[in-house]
Write a structure and sequence with these properties.
The complex is a heterotrimer.
Chain A (H helix, E strand, L loop, with lengths): L1 H31 L6 H17 L5 H24 L6 H23 L13 E4 L2 E4 H23 L1 H11 L1 H6 L4 H23 L11 H14 L4 H21 L7 H15 L13
Antiparallel strand pairs in A: 1-2
Helix pairs in contact in A: 1-5, 1-6, 1-8, 1-9, 1-10, 2-3, 2-4, 2-8, 2-9, 3-8, 5-6, 5-8, 9-10, 9-11, 10-11
Chain B lengths: L5 E4 L24 E8 L4 H19 L8 E8 L7 H14 L3 E4 L3 H13 L3 E4 L20 E3 L5 H19 L3 E7 L4 H13 L1 H4 L11 E8 L7 H10 L3 E6 L3 H12 L4 E6 L7 H4 L8 E5 L10 H12 L5 H20 L4 H9 L2 E3 L4 E3 L21 E5 L5 E5 L1 H4 L12
Parallel strand pairs in B: 2-3, 2-4, 4-5, 5-6, 7-8, 7-9, 9-10, 10-11
Antiparallel strand pairs in B: 1-3, 11-14, 12-13, 14-15
Chain C lengths: L6 H24 L3 H27 L6 H19 L3 H23 L4 H21 L1 H4 L5 E2 L10 H12 L8 H29 L1 H11 L1 H6 L4 H27 L1 E2 L6 H14 L5 H20 L8 H16 L5 H12 L12
Antiparallel strand pairs in C: 1-2
């Protein structure tokens, strides 16, 4: 029973962060048909920018966090303008150039910050007990931020005019053009927001993990697994899949002996399995782009 | 796959860049000819920078004193093996030293993995190699005087079998002091740690049997749980949880990289009901306290190569010189590489030549007081561990505990502790 | 590509190729540093990686983002056999080829269900899975520290004499060298022979009728199917050929390094091979091979001479940036179009204009 409580509590925390991370990825695909392999890099950029904010710019911690998010968003925009827009028409080329961008960013980060791990301070410290499970306060904060941000985003997509525009482009780009909407500009906005969300996930996660130049691989794999599982282009599917994967992740870690070893393999297996069995996703219906 | 660039330091020193420039007072009085030492280590992580800096400091001192290596000017060429994890760069470095630079001797290595990877190369290239960082017993496997692998020496740290014996003995003392009987082991899943945790588990349970009498105790303690973690792990809650469930009172950590920061931070913040002791290389750096946001307090770190304590009359002066030159304290690699260069220089002096086999013979006869302790090599060219050496003198590891104010206090061995003792974390008493 | 078989172009290309091979055979004589010879050996290895990638992705259009999986499978087969069974060099190499080939089958068959980007992502994920497995089985594979102490190519019962024989003919006496330098020379000649053979065979295959069939799949699969081409078996065959050759190249590589670790499985390696092939000109075998050689030489010789410290990340930044620029501006690559233009000048007339190939 204890193990179950652990899995539930920690799974919830993991799911919130994963949802935050995956949503940007999902939107970018839904709106533009773009699989951005540099998405995990934006997660990393957020964390490193926050570190730079503290060490180089001397910003107070909360401002450094905001700085990190802003830089990640801006990076998303730059990615779109510089490398995605010229090759948008060919999805394979998009894969190659975004993967190239990911490698470039990782090397740039090593160049600027060195290969040793860095630390990011937490806005809170210590821990408290939830149903007998010891949770660090920084993890709790990440959970709260994740839930709020995801909720906010879903509300914006459903209720606001801007949200309707985004959904229109995702549904039917040609019709959107006829209505006077420029899909390119929408994609730019979405990549910027997606980057900012990934950056937010990065800065809230960094205090209890670590900041290191290879930290883009895992978020990318997880985001991709989630979006594939949930159905490329479906926002609700993404959130649901994030919850599923978050709990599965922690279930394996706590349930199996030495389970932490296998955790990274799960996401990859999910990707492979879904691609082979049902490329349009398992959780939700396929989006407009396939 | 890429060839690493090697930087030359010495009288013709160039390429300062981010690395501290190492220049000698070009050709001190009486120095003629050169003795070139290839030094390598993962300088891109903090663990490796000390290898380079310790060696350079030694070369500088010897050259400035006019003695060099048997009258020859010591020239250091440094090669960065990048991160100590993947081994191709290490092999590239060593190959380059032998094939391109024609060095007289090689010093270095941080991780056991990368050190083991270069051994065949130094044997094929018939060049002396003094290992400075790797603890795996396999480093000196097959080494004997006059044999094919005679080129290999290890000046530090003591090998992981001895480390394990020492650690076992110290842990048993600690357990007796505190009245605790249940241990857990949390180890980094890498080359040096696996045999160490196996031995430790056996020794803690049956000390006399596991160490063949080296530790005379018959009854041991209970090891309730042994858990691994990846070298880049970030979440230890599942392992902490398992230890808590099994009732572990002391958890022994074994890790060598930066994940040690996240581990100790998580321990200090979540305050699980066990003390944390053990090998944590990241914890040996001064910056560790701040990196863990003060959560390092009450961690007992050891066996460590040293801390700023008078292990020998040479130790404190070395720490001071290192701090003066580089603005920071060294960790164990700094001491071993410093002593390696000194030992080589003295061997060349006694041999009266730089010829490889002559120097090897003199290296085998090494008996000196270094910064680590009294340094002698066994028949397998491995550095002698004090308690098990012929006359009880050799290298002895130390254990220090972080205090709440960020200072380190040496707690074991008791002879060097000056009365200081281990303090239990407040949430456990 | 059938245009390549026309006499005029064949002579120029053939002459060029012969000259290059001759230069490669005699080259070590004129080099003073053995480390340079090692760089050339690495170039040969990567030429094999790129060529084996090309016969699959360049020809059939099934973009493989995880070529490192086949290379690593070959490398670790050698490593594990050495660690647990002490098997002769040639035998472990055959085993590596077999395992890699099997992996190609295992990936190639499900891949039939996927198109374009999905296929690419699946291969990426497959390689990532293999990498993760290597970490999970760390006690066996050694993880990032890997398995050391592998045999040298010169220790092979077959390859040793071949390498030493070639060395004696083209280089000179290797007896006086220490074991390290002797190994460098022997490695070089064995890899040179292997690479030249592989590239030649693949290029001939690519220029043949079967090669044309492979390309037809990329150009218009439905039309190919309609004309009775069994596209499925060809696609899988391409996967298996590509993976088997990559496995062989991988096993050669780890023997030259005498060690194998998870660097052979990383996405960086897969991407680097794509960079080499793209810059060289995918779909021509020779292009990717040349692209590989150019990039290895660029990395390990030119940049080093310029004083650019390899630890300083300039290299990965440079090459990933180069990849992006080439993909955006010149997706057909640099080397092959250049070669075509060069050899075109030596031909009086060309009946067929540059096709949509490459």
């Amino acid at each position: 029973m204890d193990v179950l409580v652990e899995i539930l509590v920690r799974g919830a925390q993991t799911s919130a962060v994963l949802a935050l991370l995956a949503l940007g990825f999902s939107l970018v695909y839904g709106v533009g048909g773009v699989v951005n392999l540099a998405h995990g890099s934006l997660f990393m950029v957020g964390a490193y920018a926050a570190v730079a904010g503290v060490t180089t710019l001397g910003l107070p911690l909360w401002l450094a966090y905001a700085f990190g998010v802003a830089v990640a968003g801006a990076s998303g925009a730059v990615l779109y303008l510089l490398i995605v827009r010229p090759v948008r028409r060919d999805p394979l080329t998009v894969l190659i150039v975004t993967l190239g961008a990911a490698i470039f960013i990782a090397a740039l980060v090593r160049f600027l910050f060195g290969t040793a791990n860095r630390g990011l301070g937490g806005l809170v410290g210590g821990s408290f007990s939830i149903f007998g499970v010891r949770v660090q306060q920084t993890r709790m904060l990440a959970f709260v931020v994740g839930v709020l941000a995801v909720g906010l985003l879903l509300a914006v997509l459903r209720k606001t005019a801007a949200g309707r525009i985004v959904r229109a482009v995702a549904q039917d780009p040609e019709a959107a053009i006829l209505m006077g909407i420029d899909p390119g500009r929408v994609l730019l906005a979405v990549m910027t927001i997606g980057g900012a969300l990934a950056g937010l996930a990065g800065v809230t996660t960094a205090p209890f993990e670590a900041v290191f130049p290879d930290m883009w691989l895992r978020p990318l794999t997880m985001a991709f697994a989630i979006v594939i599982l949930g159905g490329l282009g479906s926002v609700e599917g993404t959130v649901l899949a994030a919850v599923l994967l978050g709990f599965l992740d922690r279930a394996v870690a706590f349930g199996l002996p030495s389970g932490e070893r296998y955790v990274d393999l799960i996401a990859v297996l999910v990707i492979l399995g879904t691609l082979v069995v049902r490329p349009q996703g398992i959780v939700a219906r396929a989006g407009a782009h396939h | 796959m890429s060839r690493t660039t090697r930087k030359t330091f010495g009288a013709v020193g160039i390429l300062a860049l981010a690395l501290a420039a190492c220049s000698t007072s070009g050709g001190g009085t009486g120095l003629s000819g050169t003795y070139t030492i290839g030094v390598w280590g993962p300088a891109s992580i903090p663990q490796g920078g000390d290898i380079r800096d310790g060696a350079m400091l030694a070369a500088q001192e010897l050259n400035d004193a006019g003695t060099g290596a048997g009258g020859r000017e010591i020239k250091i060429i440094f090669c960065d093996s990048i991160d100590g994890a993947s081994t191709a760069e290490a092999v590239d470095c060593v190959k380059g030293f032998i094939q391109d630079d024609g060095v007289d001797a090689i010093v270095g290595g941080f991780s056991s993995g990368e050190t083991l990877a270069v051994l065949q190369t130094v044997v094929d290239g018939e060049t002396i190699f003094v290992a400075t960082g790797a603890a795996s017993p396999d480093v000196v496997a097959g080494v004997e005087s006059g044999g094919e692998r005679r080129f290999i020496f290890r000046i530090g740290p003591i090998n992981s079998t001895y480390l394990a014996i020492d650690m076992c003995g110290t842990m048993l003392k600690l357990a007796a002091q505190l009245g605790f009987g249940k241990f857990g082991i949390l180890f980094e899943d890498v080359e040096f740690a696996r045999p160490l945790k196996d031995f430790l588990a056996a020794c803690l349970a049956n000390p006399s049997e596991a160490t063949q009498g080296a530790i005379p105790q018959e009854t041991g303690v209970e090891v309730v749980s042994v858990k691994p973690h990846a070298f880049d792990a970030t979440d230890f809650s599942s392992q902490f949880s398992a230890f808590e469930k099994k009732g572990a009172q002391i958890v022994i950590e074994i890790n060598s990289r930066q994940e040690g920061v996240a581990l100790v931070r998580q321990w200090g913040e979540t305050r699980p009901p066990f003390a944390l002791v053990g090998i944590n290389v990241a914890s040996q750096f001064d910056a560790f306290f701040e990196q863990t946001e003060g959560n390092a307090a009450y961690e007992l770190n050891g066996p460590a190569g040293s801390t700023r304590a008078p292990l020998t009359p040479e130790t404190i002066p070395f720490y001071d010189a290192f701090m003066a030159e580089y603005g920071r304290n060294p960790i164990y690699n700094g001491l071993s590489s410093y002593d390696a260069v000194h030992a080589l220089a003295e061997a060349v002096e006694r041999a009266g030549s730089a010829e490889t086999d002559a120097v090897i013979t003199e290296m085998e006869a090494t008996d000196r007081v270094g910064t680590q302790g009294r340094e002698r090599f066994g028949p397998d060219h491995d550095i002698l561990y004090g308690p098990l050496a012929p006359d009880g003198e050799g290298i002895v590891p130390v254990y220090f505990q972080w205090q709440e104010d960020g200072t380190k206090v040496l707690v074991f061995p008791e002879e060097l502790a000056g009365g200081a003792t281990y303090t239990l974390p407040p949430w456990l008493s | 590509m059938i245009a390549a078989l026309r006499p005029g172009r064949l002579t120029v290309n053939g002459l060029l190729a012969a000259l290059v091979v001759l230069a490669a055979l005699l080259g070590p004589r004129f080099l003073t540093r053995f480390s340079t010879i090692d760089v050339l050996t690495t170039a040969g290895v990567f030429a094999m990686f790129a060529a084996s990638w090309d016969i699959l992705s360049g020809y059939t259009g099934q973009e493989n983002f995880g070529h490192a999986a086949f290379i690593g499978a070959g490398g670790f087969t050698v490593g594990l056999l050495t660690k647990y069974a002490d098997v002769p060099v040639e035998v472990s190499m055959l085993a590596a080829a077999a395992i890699a080939g099997l992996l190609g089958l295992v990936i190639g068959i499900p891949a039939l269900r996927l198109r374009g980007p999905y296929l690419a992502l699946a291969t990426l994920a497959a390689a990532a899975a293999l990498l993760r497995l290597a970490f999970i089985f760390k006690p066996q594979t050694g993880g990032e520290e890997g398995i050391s102490g592998l045999a040298k190519l010169g220790d092979g019962a077959l390859l040793g004499p071949i390498g030493r024989g070639a060395a004696r003919i083209f280089y000179g006496d290797v007896g006086g060298l220490n074991r390290l330098n002797e190994a460098s020379i022997v490695n070089y000649y064995v890899v040179l022979l292997a690479a030249t053979s592989m590239v030649a065979v693949l290029a001939a295959y690519g220029a043949s009728k079967r090669g044309l069939l492979l390309r037809s799949i990329q150009q218009d699969e439905t039309a190919a199917l309609a004309s009775g081409v069994s596209t499925a078996s060809l696609k899988v065959a391409a996967f298996v050929v590509s993976s088997t050759l990559a496995g062989i190249a991988g096993s050669l590589w780890v023997h030259t390094l005498t060690q194998v670790n998870i660097d052979t499985l990383r996405v960086d390696l897969s991407l680097l091979i794509i960079v080499m092939a793209v810059i060289g000109g995918a779909g021509s075998i020779v292009g990717p091979a040349i692209g590989a050689v150019i990039i290895v030489l660029l990395q390990d010789l030119v940049l080093d001479r310029l004083g650019i410290d390899p630890g300083s990340q300039v290299k990965p930044m440079l090459f990933s940036a180069l990849l992006i620029v080439v993909m955006i501006v010149r997706p057909k690559g640099l080397v092959v179009p250049l070669l075509r233009r060069l050899s075109g000048r030596a031909v009086i007339a060309r009946a067929r204009p540059e096709g949509a190939d490459g």
